[in-house]
Write a structure and sequence with these properties.
By secondary structure, the chain is of the alpha+beta class. The chain has 11 helices and 10 strands. Bound molecules: acetoacetyl-coenzyme A.
């Protein structure tokens, strides 16, 4: 078993690390404070090919493997988890879904601009009344000749304000449960699509999270993604990939928290010595370092299983469950190591602590990940 990254993966990691440090880090705190989407930086990431890096080159992507992709999400999230999730959603919840389930025409029309950074995507599953119970949705589609009419509302949509193309899950037949669900590609500019409330959040404050309303939106039948009634399986298969991205985001937050804590603990002196020389502090750092390595291994296990064509739902759920727990634990420990200073906005660790929590909630709560893992044990 080889635990080494390939030369290409190292090159990608180093390039994105430089980009993150020079282009993303300097104003991460300011964007968080002002709840300002990193529009300029996301555009640049698109131009550099990262927004659709996992898409095949024939559709404008980089054909990067999933480990390389997790390295990119991790490095971005080390300095700004809001940028990390914007890239993760575009790559895995949108581009992956289009490449895996789309027709050739859909790929040419929507995937190519999304993969080349000319457009941004969002994934619309959750609704005010349906979060974990995603199959029980209220947004409906009605077939009329060569198009469908979609009505309803989706909430907690990452990239919701800036997205050009949306993958929207709706029901054609509420009584059919998950078997009535269909997926559609909806253009943000289709008449009847509007952005509702922009959410004010505890963390990832510069990620735009919004409600989207669909008021009798006329969608061509050609925009059906996959087949009628197969939308729920498509939603779940896409989330299996998305969860690897969120696990990588969590890993980045944990790594950022550890690096900040080590630096501060070396500099901060109390009782005549650096606080890193106290066991109370260095034992916390040791735990953080170990947890980060363990999370990384679970993430790479899921990424390699996906790229090898094996089943990876359970691996992806384990990676997200564990990495998000590690992110919260490391961020809380980092604040503790900083002491009073950690509670101030002068240092990034309070932001890491606020950002970490969402990784235990979105793209499936920790409880949903446990359910997926437990169901895997039963089959
Ligand atoms: N891949 C493919 N198909 C799958 C699948 C997978 N991983 N998991 C389930 N399915 C299929 C099943 O095989 C089944 O198909 P058949 O009907 O043909 O047999 C169908 O989907 C229904 O499956 P279940 O009976 O397991 O469905 P369920 O209602 O019990 O739900 C669940 C399962 C795991 C709880 C699911 O509802 C779930 O994951 N909930 C959480 C939703 C979630 O993560 N939401 C986050 C939204 S995205 C977000 O956070 C916002 C953002 O912008 C980042």
């Amino acid at each position: 078993m080889d635990f080494k990254l390939t030369e290409e993966q190292i090159q990608i990691r180093d390039e994105i690390r430089r980009f993150a440090e020079t282009e993303i880090a300097p104003d991460a705190a300011g964007r968080d404070e002002q709840e300002k989407f990193a529009e300029k930086q996301i555009k640049k990431l698109g131009e550099l090919g990262y927004m659709g890096m996992t898409v095949s080159s024939q559709y404008g992507g980089q054909s990067a493997d999933t480990v390389a992709y997790t390295l990119v999400v991790e490095e971005l999230s080390k300095v700004d988890a809001s940028v990390g999730v914007a890239l993760s959603v575009n790559n895995s919840l949108v581009c992956y879904g289009l490449e895996k389930f789309g027709t050739e025409t859909q790929k040419q029309k929507y995937l190519v601009p999304l993969a080349t950074g000319k457009a941004l995507g969002a994934y619309c599953l959750s609704e005010p009344g349906t979060g974990s119970d995603a199959g029980n949705m209220m947004t409906v589609a009605e077939k009329r000749g060569d198009h469908y009419i979609i009505s309803g509302a989706k909430n907690f949509i990452t990239n919701g304000i800036h997205a050009d193309y949306l993958i929207v899950f709706v029901t054609l037949d509420k009584k059919a449960g998950t078997k009535g669900v269909c997926a559609f590609i909806v253009e943000r500019n289709f008449p009847g699509v509007s952005v509702g409330k922009k959410e004010k959040k505890l963390g990832i404050r510069s990620s735009d999270t919004a409600m989207l309303n669909f008021d009798g939106v006329k969608v061509p039948a050609a925009n059906l993604l996959g087949q009628e009634g197969k939308g729920f399986s498509i939603a779940m298969a896409i989330l299996d990939v998305g969860r690897i991205g969120i696990a990588a985001q969590a890993l980045g937050i944990a790594g950022g928290a550890l690096a900040a804590a080590v630096k501060y603990a070396k500099e901060r002196r109390q009782f005549g010595q650096s606080i890193i020389d106290f066991q109370a502090i260095n034992f916390m750092l040791a735990d953080m370092a170990m947890e980060i390595d363990a999370a990384r291994l679970l993430i790479y296990q899921a990424a390699v299983a996906k790229d090898s064509g094996e089943k990876f739902s359970v691996q992806s759920a384990k990676a997200k469950l564990y990495a998000s727990r590690v992110a919260v634990d490391c961020a809380v420990k980092a604040v503790q190591i900083f002491g009073g200073a950690g509670y101030l906005k002068d240092y990034p660790v309070e932001r890491y602590m606020r950002d970490a929590k969402i990784t235990e909630i979105y793209e499936g709560t920790s409880e949903i990940q446990k359910l997926v893992i437990a169901r895997g044990l039963m089959t």
